[in-house]
Specification:
Elements (H helix, E strand, L loop, with lengths): L1 E2 L3 E8 L15 H6 L2 H5 L6 E8 L13 H5 L14 E8 L5 E12 L3 H5 L31 E10 L4 H17 L5 H10 L1 E2 L6 E4 L7 E4 L12 H9 L1 H12 L3 E6 L2 H15 L7 E3 L16 E6 L12 E5 L4 E3 L13 H13 L20 H19 L7 E5 L5 E4 L1 H8 L5 H8 L1 H10 L3 E3 L2 H8 L1 H7 L3 H19 L31 H17 L9 E3 L21 H16 L2 H14 L3 H13 L6 E2 L2 H16 L9 H9 L2 E6 L2 E4 L13 H21 L7 H4 L11 H11 L5 H30 L8 H5 L1 H4 L10 H5 L2 H4 L6 H6 L2 H19 L4 H31 L19 E10 L20 E8 L2 E8 L9 E6 L3 E7 L12 E6 L3 E7 L5 H15 L8 H4 L17 H20 L36 H4 L7 H11 L2 H9 L4 H5 L7 E4 L15 E4 L4 H8 L9 E5 L6 E5 L4 H9 L9 H19 L17 H6 L21 H5 L27 E6 L14 E6 ...
Parallel strand pairs: 10-12, 10-13, 11-12, 19-20, 32-35, 33-34, 33-35
Antiparallel strand pairs: 1-7, 2-3, 2-6, 4-5, 5-6, 8-9, 13-14, 15-16, 17-18, 20-21, 22-23, 22-28, 23-24, 24-25, 26-27, 27-28, 29-30, 31-32, 36-37, 38-39, 38-44, 39-40, 40-41, 42-43, 43-44
Helix pairs in contact: 5-6, 6-18, 7-9, 7-11, 10-11, 11-17, 19-20, 19-21, 20-22, 21-23, 24-26, 24-27, 27-33, 27-34, 33-34, 42-44, 43-44, 47-48, 49-50, 49-53, 50-51, 50-53, 53-54
Amino acid sequence: MARLADYFVLVAFGPHPRVVLEGGLDLTPASEWNQAPAVESQRGSGEGQGRILQRFPEKDWEDNPFPQGIELFCQPSGWQLCPERSPPTFFVAVLTDINSERHYCACLTFWEPVETPQEAARAEDSVGREEALEEGGRAQLSPTALAPAGQLFAPKTLVLVSRLDHVEVFRNSLGLIYTVHIEGLNVSLESVIGNLLTCTIPLAGGSQRTISLGAGDRQVIQTPLTDSLPVSCCSVALLFRQLGITNVLSLFCAALTEHKILFLSRSYQRLADACRGLLALLFPLRYSFTYVPILPAQLLEVLSTPTPFIIGVHAAFQAETQELLDVIVADLDGGTVTVPECVHVPPLPEPLQSQTHSVLSTVLDPELELADLAFPPPTMPTSSLKMQDKELRAVFLRLFAQLLQGYRWCLHIVRIHPEPVIRFHKAAFLGQRGLLEDDFLMKVLEGMAFAGFVSERGVPYRPTDLFDELVAHEVARMRADENHPQRVLRHVKELAEQLYKNENPYPAVAMHKVQRPAEASHLRRAPRPFPRLDEGTVQWIVDQATAKMQGAPPAVRAEQRTTVPSGPPMTAILERSSGLHANSARRLEVVRNCISYVFEGKMLEAKKLLPAVLRALKGRAARRCLTQELHLHVQQNRAVLDHQQFDFVVRMMNCCLQDCTSTDEHGTAAALLPLVTAFCRKLSPGVTQFAYSCVQEHVVWSTPQFWEAMFYGDVQTHIRALYLEPSEDQPPSQVGEAPVHEEPPSALDVASEQRRLWPTLSRVKQQELVQKEESTVFSQAVHYASRMSYLLLPLDSSKSRLLRERAGLGDPESAANSLVTSSMAGSVADSYDTESGFEDAETSDVAGAVVRFINRFVDKVCTESGVTSDHLKGLHVMVPDIVQMHIETLEAVHRESRRLPPIQKPKLLRPRLLPGEECVLDGLRVYLLPDGREEGAGGTVGGPALLPAEGAIFLTTYRVIFTGMPTDPLVGEQVVVRAFPVAALTKEKRISVQTHMDQFLQDGLQLRACTFQLLKMAFDEEVGSESAELFRKQLHRLRYPPDVRGTFAFASGAAHTPGRAGRVPKDKGPSLRTLSRNLVKNAKKTLGRQHVARRKDSSPSRELRGQPPAEDQEDEISVSEEREPSTLTPSAALKPAERLTLSSLVERACCRDYQRLGLGTLGSSLSRAKSEPFRVSPVNRMYAICRSYPGLLIVPQSVQDNALQRVSRCYRQNRFPVVCWRSERSKAVLLRSGGLHGKGVVGLFKAQNAPSPGQPQADSSLEQEKYLQAVVGATPRHADTSGRNTLSGFSSAHLGSHGKWGSIRASGRSGGSSVGVDVGSRLAGRDMLGPPQPNGAPPDPGFLRPQRAALYIVGDKAQLKGVRPDPLQQWELVPIEVFEVRQVKASFKKLLKACVPGCPAAEPGPASYLRSLEDSEWLSQIHKLLQVSVLVVELLDSGSSVLVSLEDGWDITTQVVSLVQLLSDPFYRTLEGFRLLVEKEWLSFGHRFSHRGAHTLAGQSSGFAPIFLQFLDCVHQVHLQFPMEFEFSQFYLKFLSYHHVSRRFRTFLLDSDYERIELGLLYEEKGDRKAQQVCRSVWEHMDRLSKKTPMFYNYLYAPEDAEVLRPYSNVSNLKVWDFYTEETLAEGPPYDWELARGPPEPPEEERPDSSAPQSRRRVVWPCYDSRPRAQPDAISRLLEELQRLETELGRPPERWKDTWDHVKAAQRLEARPDGRGTPGSLLASSAPHPRRSLGVYLREGPVGSTLSLSLDSDQSGGSTASSSRQAARRSTSTLYSQFQTAESENRSYEGTLYKKGAFMKPWKARWFVLDKTKHQLRYYDHRVDTECKGVIDLAEVESVAPGAPTIGAPKTVGEKAFFDVKTTRRVYNFCAQDVPSAQQWVDRIQGCLSDA
């Protein structure tokens, strides 16, 4: 029995501590209110405070002290006076005391008048005071409102404090007391309150009690049947009505996962109900955090507490909850739930989420199921609100039963006596439910509520309730009902009935009789205030009742205790197939067979099965099978094996463990733990090695949670055995019901039985059992200390590798109680990928770390298991001794194990080396591990698992080479080679490897190369750390030599030419070097000097600006031009050394190309042929003006050499504009330069006023402008005003919206008087100066003349910002946005990782690869380059010259000008031309190959920048789109891509011609020396290879004359270059041709018997074989066949090129018997290539003509220039007329026939071929003849008939062997060799005719 009410309290509006007026009314001066804090006044606490007038009983109950703070909770919004009477209010607040006991405070508040007439007279004195009344937003009372007529009312509250939750009884009781007062009933208030305080009711058990308070009232109180089930009345149903299903589910998940929840409402009772409803939903879990359904205003700071809570706050304070960032706010009045962004509430696992949602919607809206019925039933029975409440709770009860199904199978009972100690194995529960990845359940299991659930409900012997029954017996029903909504609903209703009955055991009895006040009674003036009660009377009534209770016997409630049923074993919540590794019975059979072979000693058989076993062990069932099979082979806890058996068993164990997570949720490590201490081998007498020393490399052993779960599991087993032992020889009747079952009782059953018997045992027996249990736990703790030391101490304790691998051992913090999350995150691979923390770990002590780890474990488990402190101290003493003993044992094992004969390892395969390549480090044994490329490891395409491979890593002066063989024996004896040049290394990273082979692997190394190779390797155990470190150091030394002379290209020739320094003749080398150095010195000296000499040659005719310079103009910084012959003298005055330099320069690629383009020669330029617009200037022959330019440059004829020095200063790196190409058709020129210097730009463009003559830059800027004028003047069509304003045609759509030329955007110009018009609108042909004229012409013809600019300057947008256009409009600026080199580097790094990932992708498949490819933005950069190039090509093609002036002029500028020339000039698309283009634009014009390739130590920090590779990729994209325009093949581009970084050749070394001359490289290949040296130029090497093999040649080469290419550049049109993705593991990269010779032929004696039929088929594996070599194209095959035949015939084989040229010549002759046909028809495709050029064309517009750039599709328009050009193009011939040799494929039937010649000609035997494909009959002189002698077109044949012999016919054949073929032109007479063949021919020909 319990008291209904503990305390009755009367709380009134009390005096404020500051001001008390006479008459007792508390008023604070207004001035003080204003000083009160703003928050305080908002909360309404400025008026007064609660004051307890009386409380009964006055003394605290012993079992229940009086709760503090009641006066705050009575008026949660603050104590305020009210200007009018309000009706009484009622709500129940909940207070929680320090013992987590909840006190329910029922509060009934009413209002009483506070002013008396005497106080009204004094109201005038209180003018200036305010009443800030704000509760619920009431209007503030001004001081004038306190008029004498005004009346104020003060609140007074009756409070009932109880530990029971009977809301309605409290409401009725307090209402009765109020009624007695207000209605003046003739009943003593003291007696009513006394009766209330002495009323007692039963706690639970379904009883009912009628109570009366002595005022003629009667109430019936029903107690619930089970007190563990919460009582909810209608609160859950109301919560769903207010918030809806989704919101309530969200709050439910938030409460379970320990988030902060805040309810808002204007009703206190609603807040209390909502909190109560949410708690009812959480059953069977109890909420154990802060729970305050109604929070007073003064305590709002509680909301910022860091712990979770469920709190209700009045809606008036909503504003103050806005700042809470991590609180979920549920607005009950608005029906919303707001979850902050930073809070993640995990949803229920599927399918439970959707199932629960659907059932809830059916319960809340029963008509939902019938809404779509054609004939719905007339009425639907609707549940009452109370019943609906129980139905909703039933849904959540089912949900918990489904979530926690089988939880009792994961309980570990650690102690039974004196009190049960129970632990829950969370990892096993999650693993078996298949919910490892589920965030929701993981957080629930880690929460406080679940910990309470385990300790409360885990007890095996206790009263059970509805949830226990449900989770034990109804699980099968719930699974069966899943897909049947009606059955689910029926089950819900059944459960709801039980819940309803629990709350209302006697539903019929509701005989309440309680007086209520009359309506509106609160408005009547009360006869008097609530009286002061007589304490003595009330206390006397209470004392009387207490005395009576003491005399009565205590009511003991008989609890129905029983064994809690465990229910069926758990199943996965959603059956997920394990996909690839689903274990069939066959797989398990393989595992069993392999193990039996091992133990029977059949090692060969076992070895064959091992790979299949290792694959099968990926599956859970196979791992379980393995542990079971191994257990069978252990006798008496020991199994001694021989060495081979031991290795097999250890390898299988390691394979099992490597997929184990740190928590071992599937129990694999738990099952193997006893086995690793059982299997052993004898190393020598007295020394035994156990398997645990070989399986330590797994993260699970260093996870404290794993050891705890294992420990508790073993303790449970031993304690169960402890109580089962004595029962075996007792009759079953004494042991209870357990032996009746066939299976032995579980530990929980045993514990339940023991708890039942416990009260009946004697004190001594109880003590004995407690000691036995404690000693069991203690002995297990000792045992586990040993076990842990076995698995944590490494075999070689001197190596502290263990510490850095096991994060949990080194520091105490990391072994925190994180069950799954943190331990899974700290997997080994991640934990030490970075190199941080190695040093600290290595200095610490292994033994100490292990002792600390074990001590922490022992502390935790022993404290939880109730081991005494003495025993615990003893354990702490023992642990260091256990560890030390084990270390001593291991030392002997380690010593002996090193004496074992090493396992026979495969022989090292030595790689082939190039001439001059030397081995620096001989093979270090390594394992090559699979990286992210799937093909090598079998992958999605299937195929062999070539990786991991076992072999060795070699370091040579040129390459890093791995050679080895796959570890998978199923692959066979395949050699795996992966190599890359040392110079290509971009990143080297230490890694740690978790892969387990036969041996243990040490640390690994990951090497990444810019040739798209990755070596991810783990060093073998025999490779010491010193060797690995030496390898790294040597690799680093070779990768970054201090000087370029240390590279392989130089070092490889050292042996052949020892005196390298002396090779260059003394008079040449030094003269070149010293001369150039002296020149540079002189140039620097003269910079300081001021020359007063004026320019003598600047005649007005040369001044393009039209005005001579000012007389006093000084050249402050010019080199002394005329007086220093070293720079500017004509050839007659050149010194001999300079003439030698010039003659060398003339032989360079630049000059050869200038000559070809007709830009002049040095001789003609020196004689100043005035007719030529451009000349070759030797001004830079000593590299004095610009070191990165070539010696000879093309400049306008009119510009003097001495002016160039000044012009160059305006440009970055002195790279002033020079001509590099001229269009043969339009004569427009392409120029290149560096970007403009800031100074130059200011001087040239920006200055609004002309610079004053004294300014130093003035002359340079003028010279620069003159220079541009000279360029314009030298362009032949600069004066052509034919009305073609080229760039105006770029419509704004192309410039902006499609992102094509979004970079050519508006750039504001600093205009003078006129408004500046941006480039974008100018280009778009629009104008902003004024309204357009009616005919659409621009308003100001002077601004935008219909004429083309003669010169376009393509510059960086940022550089040209604010630039003023040329006033004469002869040049125009095209600002574009280009990417910087750092962006290219970043993009390339991402591309490397996308194409060659270091580890397998998280989500396999093409999606992740494509995503990472897109992230790299590599193709976007290619797109941009092609786009800019196409723009420049268009401008040049339309006759305008273009100057490309980007960055420093040696990266993107080089890419663009090279691409422009390639697209515009077919010559550069030949083998010779492309070489010339690269030599001219990349080598001579100073692309910084050494700097960008980081060739030396100096460039190490800058890293690799793939500028040249990007250019080659662009060429590859164009090649793909125009395969017939290039003489070279794709392999040619790959070869250059590989070798421009390989440093094998000297071609791509150093940064400019100047540096190459300094090193004596540029001209050393002349004369006799050339024969002595190794081939050092990549071009020579390629020439030699080209003579031997056609690999660089493109057979499809059939160029159109003067074809300009315009490729598509959209990213969708671009392809990822297969250079980035393909590899050949059979022989390594195929670009060192001497090494890649294919597989060797088998020796004669090994060849199979030739009589047996031989298959010529061969398996070609992806990523292993080279497909082009395994299956060459038809032409290559024929050429090879031809060479082989010639060799067999003893003839010297003809060169392939000569053969190919003969074939082409013959093809041309045959292709045009009638004189028609074209050379272009050779090898042309039957359908022309989709496009030869891009649809970019000139369209005539209303004003001049406009250029329209369409980069997306071909434009169709007959009038356009492009399409007319295309239409005029000659048609290509069909595919089959391409190639006629004797082996041609199109031969339907062939043989010898005699043919009668024309009139008077004899019969002749010819070889005839009938060709169905071409529908013709051809004849040749003989069978092997390749030249066709004649063709009969079958389309012209009219008939085939038998013929007759004529004169001269063969005599030996019969008459029937003759036949005639009649065509429209003539009759052909034929004779076959015999009659059957004649018949065959006639049939075949007629068959052809009928087919047609």
